[in-house]
Design brief:
The complex is a heterodimer.
Chain A lengths: L3 E4 L2 E4 L5 E7 L6 E7 L5 E8 L5 E2 L8 E7 L2 E6 L8 E8 L3 E3 L3 E5 L1
Parallel strand pairs in A: 2-11
Antiparallel strand pairs in A: 1-3, 3-8, 4-5, 4-9, 5-6, 7-8, 9-10, 9-11
Chain B lengths: L2 E3 L4 E5 L4 E3 L2 E3 L5 E8 L6 E7 L6 E3 L2 E6 L4 E6 L8 E9 L10 E2 L3 E6 L1
Parallel strand pairs in B: 2-12
Antiparallel strand pairs in B: 1-4, 3-9, 5-6, 5-10, 7-8, 8-9, 10-11, 10-12
Classes of the chains: A mainly beta, B mainly beta.
């Protein structure tokens, strides 16, 4: 089956710093990847659609200047949380689309 | 706008019982996709099934079965002879095929926490 990896799996950072999360499709090429956020005991919310070679499409209410997305190749998309604050602490999950969406293992971000 | 409702927040059953997780969706599109994912405590989402709106045929995969009814906009999931390892949060999700050749980002229900007691 399709495998999607994420790195890092867990990150703790100080308030005000930036954090980069990588999402890779390991055995297939994905022109489209998606970024979701999940707060504890809540559902997943789509943040943005990452398109290879073009700008990401952000969902309503998601600040594009705060959550920078780069999809530089067909197997890699990155999400950078800029000037992170405690309220950005969450579980971030990416997915890559083949026939269906396959999800990465997620990244737990804790901002102190 | 699309919406997915999983009215059951938590279900607890004893092992070997059958259990059905409900999912009701709303969409204005005639072409869409429905999904079920399992999320164990580790957090990783495990893909279970994908169904497109033109395929109302029910599906069975081992102990899992799905009942898709367009008339009631429901896509229910049944686990037969439940096992402790089935304990997890299960999400139903919907995607509209706005662009040719694929689906958009998913809209998830709130999830149902299934607890299988030994």
């Amino acid at each position: 089956g399709a495998v999607v990896s994420q790195h890092p799996s867990r990150v703790i950072c100080k308030s005000g710093t930036s954090v980069k999360i990588e999402c890779r499709s390991l055995d297939f090429q994905a022109t489209t990847m998606f970024w979701y956020r999940q707060f504890p005991k809540q559902s997943l919310m789509l943040m943005a659609t990452s398109n290879e070679g073009s700008k990401a499409t952000y969902e309503q209410g998601v600040e594009k200047d705060k959550f920078l997305i780069n999809h530089a190749s067909l197997t890699l998309s990155t999400l950078t949380v800029t000037s992170a604050h405690p309220e950005d602490s969450s579980f971030y999950i990416c997915s890559a689309r083949m026939e269906t969406q396959y999800f990465g293992p997620g990244t737990r971000l804790l901002v102190l | 706008a699309q919406k997915v409702t999983q009215a059951q927040t938590e279900i607890s059953v004893v092992e070997k019982e059958d259990v059905t997780l409900d999912c009701v969706y709303e969409t204005r599109d005639t072409t869409y996709y429905l999904f079920w994912y399992k999320q164990p405590p580790s957090g990783e989402l495990v893909f279970l099934i994908r169904r497109n709106s033109f395929d109302e045929q029910n599906e069975i995969s081992g102990r899992y079965s799905w009942n898709f009814q367009k008339s009631t906009s429901s896509f229910n999931f049944t686990i037969t002879a439940s096992q402790v390892v089935d304990s997890a949060v299960y999400f139903c999700a919907l995607s509209e095929a706005r662009r040719r050749g694929g689906a958009d980002g998913l809209t998830f229900g709130k999830g149902t926490h299934l607890i299988i007691q030994p």
